[in-house]
Amino acid sequence: MISIRSPKGYDFSIQGAPQDLVEKAPLPATVGVLPERIPFIKPRLAVKSGDPVAIGDLLFTDKSDDRIRFLSPGGGHVEAIHFGPRRVIREVVIRCASDDEPAQSLTTPITPQDIDRCPRADLVAHLLKGGVWPLLQSLPFRAIADPEVQPPAIYVGLDAREPFQVPPRRYLEGHKALFEFGLRALRRLCPTVHVHADPADRAFCDAHQEVITHAVRGRYPADDPGVVLFHIRRSSEDNPSWFIKGQDVLLLAEMLQTGRYPTKRLYAVAGTGVANPRYVASRLGAPLKSLLGAVACSSPRYALGGILRGYAGDPDGHMGFYETSVTVLPEPETGDFLTLFRPGLDKPTYSRTFLSALRRTPLAMTTNVNGGRRACIACGYCAEVCPVNIWPQMTFKSILAEEVEEYLAHGLLDCVECGLCSYVCPSKIELAAVLRDAKHAYRKEQA
Amino acid sequence: MNVLRNIFDALRPRFEEGGPYHKLYAFYEAIETIFFGPVEPTKGLPHVRDSLDVKRFMALVIVALIPHLCFGIYNTGFQSRLASGLATSFGPVVWCGVWLVMPMVIVTYVVGFAWEILFAVVRKHEISEGLFVSCMLFPLTLPPGTPLWQVALGISFGIVIGKEVFGGTGRNFLNPALTGRAFLYFAYPASLSGDQVWTVLSAGRTSVVDAFTAATPLSVSASTPATQTVEETLSSVGYSALKLFGGLYPGSVGGTATVLCLLGGLFLIFLGIASYRIILGGVLGVLCTGFFMNLVAGPDSAPYLSLNPFYHLLMGGSAFGIVYMTTDPVTATHMKHVKWVYGFMCGMLTVLIRVFNPAFPEGVGLAILFMNVFNPLLDHIEVQIRMRRRIPNV
Q1: C-beta atoms of A380 and B275 within 8 A
Q2: Which of B2, B165, B181, B203 is 20 to 30 A from B230, alpha carbon to alpha carbon?
Q3: Contact B393 A372 (CB under 8 A)
């Protein structure tokens, strides 16, 4: 196990952490798939409203590569297909009739004995057919991995430092053999597989020490594959590595072992806005309502996937393909009276300008911007927290000036989209969004 | 609180889009956010934002400057009554100081705020709080007797030419308060230099009483006779090191008390608002240059060269400049490591100007303005060096 340290970043101390217990949710009435939230694909629907579907039936493919398939996580019929502005496909909703697996499996199962001898091309075909290929994503753009490409390495993140995620010791509980099978499968795709975990959870690291290759100490987002890559890469050839989340390795392994589309998901349901924060074992694409239980605030924000990197979900909608957490925070309602003159014992902050900096108790957070928009005053906080040593205060200016070579040389593509630069900015500049949009624009130009 | 909330809620529509006073929205917003924190939901990536905003950032600098203002009021009153041969009991001194200093502060704020409102309305942005810091700093750098029309002119130049023409706070490259100060210095040297401007006489007196030294420590130092050391000359007119540290001597309104600069600097460093790199760099720059001049000073050179380097930090506005002026984040270097260079150069130039340029007794303001101009270059150098070390990702 190689020990590395990510010196920057920031640890949040927020109220509403999930209790350490797993609740088993019953079979939900509907499940959904959110094509809009799958990065960079152009979905081509294979079903229409009213069609009967079984678990593992094709729902849509990617127009630019129809081998990238997205399958149904539930059996029943397609209840609705929701479109957004400009006919973007928001959601495919399936009304579940039964939890029965279809008689026919998608692919021939691969036994643990065979996996090390399985040819790479066959394995790729299995993963594509089984609808789990999109779980593999590639850096730096975090797009779905290209099946034709052999990456320099695959990063498996056994870590969850963004508030609030399912810790790996929870989702790996009782699935150690399956996880190791998944890692062996990944090694068939690429011989170099880095498994990184947080050494702070010593019991977990000891239990899985034979598979963990890197112990990454540090604050959020030290769990991000991009950050680990940034610290261990030797040359620019390491940059287009792939990554997959720990929980997704289980889906991939289960698909290969059974030949069927896996549907189990463990979600973290947290935040001050839910009455009972906890982990919920449910289905891929579970409806939000089935997970949340009682909501404890009047105007909630449902952040799917985390309060930094996630997106705002629809309470009547479903969980996305990648997201394993929903954090509910109250939207701001009224401004605090004389907040400027208060010492701020209860104000969460990265800086040391509130008395809360002196204590380490979890604080309540809202989705308030907490200030007016100003020009950059070059306080330098963003560069202090950036985990990959970008200087967002410089880079965002060169992005606005369209100096492409300059911002690429600053390391724009190393950006892990963690959102910390925006979080700490006292001028409330949307730094993370500017950097991410520039990355996406560059990708579009390259394609 | 609810009453206030209701008042603001009733007024808000008049200043919003479509209201009769929409053009003055920036003004309304500035007033409202003093009482009630702004409310605006985030758009995601990230969903949460830090509690710190520019308003609090700048307000804390003003908090650090309030002791300087209070001390400046006391010191101005004290020197005025002392020079006029009046009793220096606390009450009358403060009263006298308030009458001398507060008009300058009020004129600065009124004029500066008017310019900021004008530009905010024309440019349709909110009022940036950097202005309030500039307006607090500016009168503290002036001699106490500066005519109010010059104060108004100086802050106008500082705000408009030093800041607004480049786009406002965050886009300026010169410290606005120092720009205004330098403008006054060169435009009206008669009211801003010489030994007479640092003390304002009270009670209709036209000349100082005999025992009073009107010359500032800097001009005493610069005119030390060759037979004496500067320290001896300073203490012969009553400027001991302790007195210089305490700041109770004629000088600019707020810049004399080195002890307050020390405390204010520690306060701002502790809060993470001022860069310790710049401040330490500045202190090092002053001390190293002073020490280097001690080394090169021969028996025939001016006594100023042999001055104990710490005196350069105690006298005049160098400590004030290093703590409050160099650390303006917008006009300082934006990259981390060159902040040391920037601070050091400011300190070094301060001492060089003081010692070698007889036309300028004090050099800190000009040194900082000079280095402000170089900061983009320093940033460019650091960016280039650090980009070269990076493993490229293109």
Answers
A1: yes
A2: B181
A3: no
pLDDT for residue B193: 82
**Least confident stretch, A30-34, A332-336, A367-371:** A332-336
Distance (Å) from the alpha carbon of A365 to chain B's nearest alpha carbon:
7
Q: A145: left (phi > 0), else alpha (psi -120 to 50), else beta? A: beta
Residues of B in contact with A221 (CB under 8 A): none
The arithmetic mean of pLDDT across residues A156-176, rounded, is 91
By the 8 A CB rule, do A419 and A224 touch?
Answer: no
Q: Provide the residue ranges of all domains of chain A, joining segments of one domain with +.
A: 105-258, 368-446
To the nearest whole Å, the CA of B383 is away from the closest chain A CA by: 8
Q: Which of A268-272, A320-324, B120-124 has the lowest mean pLDDT?
A: B120-124
* Interchain contact, A374 vs B169, CB within 8 Å: yes
The pLDDT value recorded for residue B44 is 82
Shortest alpha-carbon distance between residue A129 and chain B (Å): 32
pLDDT of B194 above 90: no
Q: pTM to 2 decimals?
A: 0.93
User: Do the Cβ atoms of B170 and A348 come within 8 Å?
Assistant: no
Interchain proximity A368–B41, CB inside 8 Å: yes
Tally C-beta pairs within 8 A across A and B.
Answer: 222
Q: Residue B7 has what pLDDT? A: 86
Tell me if chain A has a CB within 8 Å of the CB of B273: yes
CATH top-level class for A105-258? alpha beta
pLDDT band per the 50, 70, 90 thresholds, residue A310: very high
| Amino acid found at B122 | V
**DSSP secondary-structure letter at B324?**
I
**Residue type at B73 in one-letter notation:** I
Q: What is the mean pLDDT of chain B?
A: 91
Q: Side-chain half-sphere of B322: how many Cα atoms within 13 Å?
A: 39
- Over residues B73-107, the pLDDT tens digits come to 999 999 999 998 888 899 999 999 999 999 999 99
Q: Which residues of A101-131 are buried (b: 16+ CB within 10 A; e: fewer)?
A: eeeeebbeebeeeebeebeeeebbebbbbbb
Give the nearest partner residue to A303 out of B29, B47, B126, using CB atoms: B47
- Inspect the interface and report whether the beta carbons of B271 and A140 lie closer than 8 Å: no
Find where tokens 């010359």 sit. B215
Contacts of B275 in chain A (CB under 8 A): 380
What is the C-alpha R_g of chain A? 22
Residues of chain B found within 8 Å of residue A430, distances taken between Cβ atoms:
43, 45
Contact A350, B57 (CB under 8 A): no
Mutate to test the interface with B, among A15, A351, A365, A443 (most CBs of B within 10 A): A351
Contact B47 A235 (CB under 8 A): no
Within a 10 A sphere around the Cβ of A381, how many other Cβ atoms? 24
Q: Nearest-CA neighbor of A370 among A427, A412, A439?
A: A427
Number of helices and strands (H, E) in chain B?
17, 0
Question: Per the omega criterion (within 30 degrees of 0), is the bond before B67 cis?
Answer: no
User: Rounded distance, CA A35 to CA A75, Å?
Assistant: 18
Mean pLDDT of chain A: 92
